[in-house]
Design a protein that fits this description.
The chain has 351 residues and is α+β, with helices and mostly antiparallel strands. It folds into 2 domains: 197 residues, 2-Layer Sandwich (Aldehyde Oxidoreductase, domain 4), CATH 3.30.365; 93 residues, Aldehyde Oxidoreductase, domain 3. 28% of the residues lie in helices and 20% in strands. It has 9 helices and 15 strands. The strands form 5 sheets. Strands 1-2-3-4-5 form a 5-stranded mixed sheet.
């Protein structure tokens, strides 16, 4: 397989609707030459690029919600790439078909990317090794990669990854690459400092709620007290009389107060008078949920899979029994749920 241009790659992937596997298994964009004095960049995968300074940038296409994907996904690439962890940089992907499925949930991020991201790293490593071997006029097998360098096993000479990007970008992409045996892992399964922590500590990390665009107005929603509830009637006259409140609108989720600032929107919500229909879940509370779950424990369950004989006799063993309970919890991250939308010329840009 030969290198293809970025434009052609994006066009092909976008038209085909292909996802993560295609993006990783057809990895080479080739060398990207930047104007001026910027470093040359080797982009062996849609998720990975290496510049002539040896900086490895990994594009994370899943949302970081505190679960650590901005570190765990780079770990997969770095393990096979044999790069220096301190040279890793992360970049959050924009919404784009070239990254395939970008939804985040169900604990799927590692399971879906474990092979493709490792293959992306291994592919880049093989191409860098081949580039070095060609420079030394030796076999690939006479080279090894370690900590961001390709090392000549014959005489100990070495090239940094940054020194090899231009030559590596000209090579055909290997169809099959060998992945590490898990017993040889140096990064996967080890304690690694999170890459996104410093930016959050220093306040440099940008979240949706940090976005401000010219002419922006703000809305907050007063929602029903019970899930599935609806508005029977409401009086917004007091809210509309407040300074900064622009409008009050009923939507399926409740009543939205639109204002010139977040705080004026919140003030408007407090001034609303709403008569709610709590709906079918009006009487559901923590005690109701607990009683239902306890009741179902006494009923026969559904057999999903059966292996072996679960009814064999056990010898007399010391039995320990304990019951743990947790209340029904709200999935509430530190950043309030939010979205910024710029609607213009029949299109919407979202953050």
């Amino acid at each position: 397989m030969k290198n293809i241009t970025r434009r052609k790659f994006i066009k092909v992937v976008g038209l085909s609707g292909s996802g993560l596997l295609l993006a990783s298994y057809i990895p080479a964009y080739g060398l990207k030459l930047e104007p001026g004095d910027e470093p040359k960049i080797f982009t062996p995968s849609v998720y990975l690029r290496i510049d002539s300074n040896g900086i490895v940038t990994i594009t994370v296409h899943r949302s970081e919600m505190g679960q650590g994907v901005q570190t765990s996904l780079p770990m997969l690439v770095a393990e096979e790439l044999e790069c220096d962890w301190k040279n890793i940089r992360i970049e959050q992907a924009d919404g784009n078909p070239i990254y395939g499925n970008q939804s985040t949930g169900g604990s799927q991020s590692i399971r879906r990317t474990f092979d493709p991201f490792r293959i992306a790293g291994a592919t880049a490593k093989v191409m860098l090794i081949t580039a070095a071997a060609n420079k030394w006029n030796i076999k690939d097998s006479d080279c090894t990669a370690e900590n961001g360098f390709v090392i000549n096993k014959i005489n100990g000479n070495k090239f940094s990854y940054g020194e090899l990007v231009e030559d590596a970008a000209k090579l055909p992409v290997p169809k099959d690459v060998k992945l590490k045996d898990p017993k040889d892992y140096k990064i996967i399964g080890k304690r690694i400092h999170r890459l996104d922590t410093p930016a959050k500590i220093y306040g440099a990390a940008k979240f949706g709620i940090d976005i401000v665009i010219p002419g922006m107005i703000y809305a907050s929603v007063e929602r029903p007290p019970a899930f599935g509830g609806k508005v029977k009637s409401f009086d917004a006259s007091k809210a509309k009389s407040l300074n900064g409140v622009i409008d009050v609108v009923e939507i399926p989720q409740g009543i939205a107060v639109i204002a010139d600032s977040t705080w004026n929107s919140f003030k408007g919500k407090k001034a609303l008078s709403i008569n709610w229909d709590d709906g079918p879940n009006a009487n559901i509370d923590s005690e109701f949920i607990r009683n239902n779950m306890t009741k179902y424990l006494d009923e026969d369950g559904s057999e999903i899979e059966l292996k072996g004989n679960p009814n064999f006799d056990l010898p007399e063993l010391k039995s320990i029994e304990s019951i743990y309970e947790l209340p029904f919890l709200c999935h509430a991250p530190l950043e309030p749920m939010n979205c910024v939308a710029k609607v213009e010329n029949g299109k919407a840009e979202l953050w």
